[in-house]
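Box 3.1 A note on notation
Throughout this textbook, protein chains are presented in two layers. The first layer is the amino acid sequence; the second is a token string describing backbone geometry. Keep the layers aligned when reading.
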Amino acid sequence: MRCRSAFNAIYLLLAWLPLFVGCSTLVGHPPQAVRAPNIVVILADDLGSGDLADTTERSLIPTPNLARIAAEGLRFTDAHSPSAVCTPTRYGLLTGRYAWRTHMRQGVLGGRSPALIETTRPTLPSILAAAGYRTSGAGKWHLGLQSSGPTDYSKPLDPGPTSAGFERWWGIPASLDMAPYLYFEDARAVAQPTEKIQGSAQARKGGRGFWRGGAIAPGFRHEQVLPDTAARAVAEIERHHELQPAEPLFLYVALSAPHTPWMPAKRFQTVEGAGVYGQFVAHVDAVVGEILDALDRTGMTDDTLLLFTSDNGAHWTASDRQQFEHRANGNWRGQKADIHEGGHRVPLLVRWPDRIGSPRRGESNDTLIGLTDLLPTLVAAAGIEVPAGAAPDGISFLPTIVAGADGLRESIVHHSLDGMFAFRQGPWKWIEGLGSGGFTAPKRIQPSDGPSGQLYHLEDDPGELNNLATTHAEVAERLQRQLDQVRLREAP
């Protein structure tokens, strides 16, 4: 780890040297630093690695805007969310720390849960804000509000996004199928959830799209949340360009889709190939297009580092795979919530025109990456150091972005909905248990005479079909020891 840190520090210095001009040619003129890049992170909700067109032969959904990002930047094919469900992934992305190190060992938060991010913990927005960034967020929060529950929306929603480093925030408290249904801005509810709404059936079963019944604010419409989030993200870009163009912007756009309820706008309802889900993915792609257009319009594209990813794999069930040829999670086993690859292997696209030159644009990269790596990577891209104690489970992959460096992360921990762990190193993946640990049946299998876990060689067996735990017991034992070491390691 020390060698890797030293390498990253040296590389960061070398990578930023071209951003200083005049030092070797203009005598008497001090070097002038080009300001740090704008940073935009777009996090989809439940989008699978196989949903992007042109990334797998089994994708039947048009995603031209995501294809544009991939063509103008880099596509990472071995990227993973720190959990196979959303709340712990959002915690990991913003803090660089695995959520299972908190009191949250499994599951997700609800719409009235207290804040998960500790108020003293450095976060991606708080670190960037301290370095002069304007920090703004829009969309789905799902990291809890206030210090104890149940959340009282008539009072200030603190702790929350503003205590976690966001100067400006607008969005919804949790998933769009979790009551209460309302918007909140900064630390206040826009309108109180004084009305009630009945639950709705899944679109798979002929309903409008699944959500739970409960409290709702007057005028709140589920189908309007994705368009409203797009409008807010665009407005934040335009506002920044108009009022604060000399300062860098950090914008976090946490989309509520294509998580349920699946409610695509009318213009996408002619998309074929993956039912209502595919139509909603096409809507997500169009929202990405609106953000790209806003960056183009304001002249911010070239000096903006933009990342697109997802909080976990797609909720694409066995019945969906039987009905449609589309493979939302590619050819990987499992789905959202599962410990298998379909649960946590996610799309990751990176575009930075100022730093990713034309010879490398459009490349695919199979470097192992976790979304806990975003904090150290983006902080390094901003030209600042990660504070001591921050991002204990993250490793910067900035050298990979700007120069194609490989092998910075040697291993990674995976985590499922019900708390099942896995440890990946090279092609080997050890799962500490039997079953999926998530939505796919069986969730858990009690070991009998056979192995207690699952061992797969992903290069030879990407579908995780051949459990090698018995024939390669020494590998399973080694990976188990390493997993134990990571869990026991102090990560403040």
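The domain at 415-488 is CATH 3.30.1120.10 (Arylsulfatase, C-terminal domain). The two ends are 16 Å apart (CA to CA).
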